[in-house]
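PT: before anyone asks, these are the final sequences, not the draft ones from last week. 976 residues across everything. Please model them as a single complex and drop the result in this thread when it's through.
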Amino acid sequence: MPATTRPPPIGEILAAADQVVLGKSRQTRLALCCLLARGHLLIEDLPGVGKTTLAHTLARLLGFRFARVQFTSDMLPADILGVSILDRERSNFRFLPGPIFTQVLLADEINRATPKTQSALLEAMEEGQVTTEGETRPLPEPFFVIATQNPSSQIGTFPLPESQLDRFLLRIELGYPDHHAERSLLESGGRREQLPALTARLAAGDFAALQLQAAAVHASPALLDYLQQLVEASRNDPRLLHGLSPRAALSLLAAARAWAFTDGRGMVLPEDVQAVLPAVARHRLRLVSGSHPAAEDITALMRSVPLV
Amino acid sequence: MAKAVKAAAKPGTRPAVPLEHGAVPWLLAVALATAGPHFGHLPWWLSALVGGALCWRAWLWQQRRQLPPRWTLALLVIGTIAAVGWQFRTLLGKDAGVALLVIFMALKPMEMNKRRDALVVIMLGYFLLLTHYLYSQSIPTGLWLLVAITLLTATLIRLHGGAQPVATVARHAGLLLAQALPFMLILYLLFPRVSGPLWGLPQDAYSGLSGLSDQMAPGSISRLVQSGAIAFRSRFVGDLPDQSDLYWRGPVFDDYDGLTWRTSKPPGKAPPQAPTIAAGSPPQAYTSILEAHNRRWLLALDVPTRLPPDSSLAPTLEALAREPVRVRSRFSFASSVAYRANVDETPAILQQALALPPRINPRSRALAAGWASRPPREIAAAALAMFHDEDFHYTLQPPLLGPNAMDDFLFDSRRGFCEHYASAFVFLMRAAGVPARVVAGYQGGELNPVDGYLNVRQSDAHAWAEIWIAGEGWLRFDPTVAVAPSRIEQGIVAALPAGESLPMVIRIDSDWLRELRNRWEAANNTWNQWVLGYNPQRQREVLSRFGWREPDWRSMTASLAVLCGVALLLVALWTLPRRRAVDPAQRAWQKYCAQLARRGISRVQWEGPVAFAHRVARERPELAALTGEAAALYAALRYGRSDQNAAGTLRLLQECIDRLPPRRRRNA
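LR: through. Structure below.
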């Protein structure tokens, strides 16, 4: 019997986040699912809709160290990873770790950086470690990147190539707040001030346990059938240039598990897959016209696969 | 979602779907592919108008401009329809009707900015395709229509499926047409055939046919020879007769007015006497496929001893059909190349075979008068010797002749084609007192090794002479042989000087081109016989080959229906997604959902159980609790870990169906 009550820490974290990031509970939940599924998150939207607030809030609520890097086109890999400098007293090189040595890294406007810098970050994301000057240093555990992109100003940017987009488990859009949320925002002032007041809801190591639980959510053969049908439909859809890769299918399953877990359910339902599908698929697929599919395209894809 | 809201806002009306920009080139291609092949027989200004309109539309598309205003289009439509009416003097009939359809096809894209308009263009395109068969039913036409119908279908797919690669659309369209193929074949083979066309063709339908005419003036055959078109094809059961025996008899001309040879009207009302024939060689059987030429003569090999049904032998020995040959037809004959015919000829015919117009051609008459005392054979020999020994030339471009045409030809120009030699010979014979007449027809033919048919072309058209000798009957004399023996032995190409203009198709030097032509003509022949000539008789032949002896239209229609049903079933089995094995939990859930559907709320195909339960809770609160329970049970059964209590859970789910409240009446 599926319970609709969330596991206590999850419900608490989401409720607290909703107090800060107003009217975005779905996106907040997706972002949390992304971290529960050990994935990195890409947020694409206009400036000022609360991307940074969302990232920062989550980091604080989960009790993670947080660092933010504003990407620019003159940024070098060393600006993120860190540099070795000569220590005159000891006459040797000392490594000054860059901002990447944190638990939650907010990479703001990642598409402003040059491909070289982008790839340095994305490599670190994939490997969970940083190699500079022949020395490999592990990144803290857990390590999440929440990257943001501004979709409207494309001048002077380096759009992330397909292979690097694939490293982000989910991509979400925030959008404008609704009428009520915006009114309470205006009435109570900006949200940044509340951030320092947020306290961690998790003890160290708790999150790792939650991740393990999320990964253990049951996916029945019928559910896997459905997921495979969805993936196959994406491969046969004539409007799409290419379909979802096996890695994308794995990501879809992991995200759906996390989504089911945040619902307090021990099994994945097709509804969970449907809920995370747009966030998993949109940045991985391309329409024949070359652009990423709109949310309606993914809905149409989803509706083309019948459920019994 | 937004679309649904909009649609809901205006009940009863569906918002017109705008036409996608990327679909316009497809539709313009459709217009060009369906209207384009008509350019050949449309008035030039109409073709120019259609081309201009399509280019204009393409430019508007490329520049993303507004379409022209309605009143411009209205003026354009009225103007062009008036012009068509003026050009054809009517708006009815084949040509004017097709012209109107083509105009619609060219102008409809001008106001095409909704999907609805595009659908009109496509339907018009399918219809316009049919009209091509009113003009041509050849293989290239068939192939082109296949391409065009694929394009039309692909455009339809493109319109509904949105932007996608051309290859995908084409594959889809090809697949659809391939699925239609079995039905096409079944309908083709079994649909009861009627002889002749299903609808009456307009009077002008046969005016364009070429072939021998019912009269012969200088130049009429040499004009015909300019065509490489096939007049008929023959296949002999046994060996082919000698090339020099291949005289295919057409009209016989015995009435000369000084310029033109005609067939004389039978004198009086007495029934014509049947010809008497004594064959001098074994009959050779053959089948001819005669192209339509709108005349009655069947062009049998001289002289036919066995005739096909519905035909007869004229007193002048040519085989005649009962009706003019208006469609390509098959006829079977047997002929003997050596024969004696009409040894006892009626006096009226002999008298006609001596008649000459008075006074003209005095020099020729004088020449013939000098031979008159000799026996007929020697007279003929003298004339032939004159053609052979003196400076006579065989040419397609003889000089013009004056009022005394025979004198001019025999004594001055001495250049002519077969009709000149035949008519001069007959004139001399008659002037010398020997009954003589001109026979027109074809001589020779070329064997196509690919299918074994002897192709006889318009370029093989020929005219020769016959004289009647008492006790021997009518004897053939071909004066052309005396001038240019190679015409009979090797054909016209060898006989004419190199500079003379002849159709390319018969002047082929290279072997592979000739091979190509032979194969193409053999393919055409098969097409003619099996596709165009698939008449009731052929249908019976084919069905009897499948062991069906006496098909009547009732049993044929019945088997047509049965076979189409079977084919439909097969295609359906192949295309419909195979019904997946449904487990008891699925069955119970489906049953529950069906019960809910009867109560006015149905699960959408892609809706998961919990999502559906939430929707039910929103829309039909009275069913919320039970549906929530059923959905949870089903989800646990299908998506949960399998446990020992599955049977119990299933029972609970099945009980939910029974626990549903009874249905309310709709208007209660």
